[in-house]
Amino acid sequence: MSLVKLSDVANVIAGQSPKSENYNKEKEGLPFYQGKKDFGEKFLKPPSIWTREVTKIAKAGDLLFSVRAPVGAINLATEEVCIGRGLAAIRVKSNIDKNYLFYVLSSISKNLDVTSGAIFNSISKKQIESITFLLPPLAEQVCIIEMLDFTFDEIHKLKNISRKAVLIYSQLLNQIIIQFLRNKNFNWKNKYLDEISTNLDSNRKPITKSKRINGLTPYYGASGIVDYVQGYIFDDDLLLISEDGANLISRSYPIAFSISGRSWVNNHAHVLKFNSEDIQSWVEIYLNFKNIDDFISGMAQPKLNKAKLNQIPIPIPEESKLKEILETIVNAKELIKKVDINLIKKSELFDNLKSSILKKTLNINL
């Protein structure tokens, strides 16, 4: 086993971005990759952009290394591609297996990433070439690769099991809501938001970022807190509902969320005041459950205006049944929260386990 520099075992090709007028989606030229956003777990995602002007080429089997934040992310190219200046291609020589080098570089990626407590905001070709590590003979590299492939595949399976558990519990919550809505004994009656709440949109005051004064008051937008400012315009229990933004379609985050106390809200969220805490809670649950695409205008810039918001029928049960519904749903959500927290802990544990295995298997110096 010998101590080597990366330049001893591979050639580094720094990326160079073509002129943007050569980019296209008609598959003319070579697929173009320029950063981590195009990375998969280990292999590049399918291309979304091509370029007619080819600057620097990465070949199938080359390692692609992110040289800008997040520095150190690594993937393998599956075909010949053009690479921009956010990437460097690493082409191995005959004395090292590309999969072994993939694991070597994966083991140092956290130490390079400026976003994770970092030492690099970017990294140069020379710095990549100077990375040093212990290189075993090829036969031993193959054994190490097989062991790491098997171990990480098992870890990946465990992570998927945990993710599926959260998905199952989330689907269970939806089924609970559906069963409640189908129960005719609850005497459901459709109401509209302007009948059961007061709209306070006219009191909203957006503040441009340059004019915000740092303070303790949460400043809300379409999907939650975006800043903290001085002063306040509301001091109450309110329900905010997204007025615009891609999240209205993607539903990556709740589109309805309750807030309390002093707050400042910009014009990207509707502001509703309810007389009944239970009805507010149910409306929040229902809107986050219900598909409201028919009330949203514009796909490029989705918007749920006040008029359309007030056209959404909200099924309301009799008061005694509503308490029963809320209690059941709150208990289910608490269970999901526990499972979600457990998933985060497990995910961190799995990631730490992978890092530990890499460190114990490979000896790296930067």
How far apart lie the N and C ends? 18 Å
Q: Whole-number average pLDDT?
A: 89
Largest sheet, order of strands side by side?
Answer: 3-5-4-9-6
CATH superfamily of the largest domain: DNA methylase specificity domains
* CATH topology-level name of the largest domain: Adenine-n6-DNA-methyltransferase TaqI, Chain A, domain 2
* Poorly predicted regions: 114-118
Number of strands: 22
Provide the helix percentage. 25-40%
Largest sheet: 5 strands, mixed
**Number of discrete helical segments:** 9
CATH top level of the largest domain is Alpha Beta
User: How many structural domains in the coordinates?
Assistant: 3
Q: Rough shape?
A: elongated
Named at the architecture level, the CATH assignment of the largest domain is: Alpha-Beta Complex
How much strand? 15-25%
Rg from alpha-carbon coordinates: 26 Å
| SS-based class | alpha+beta
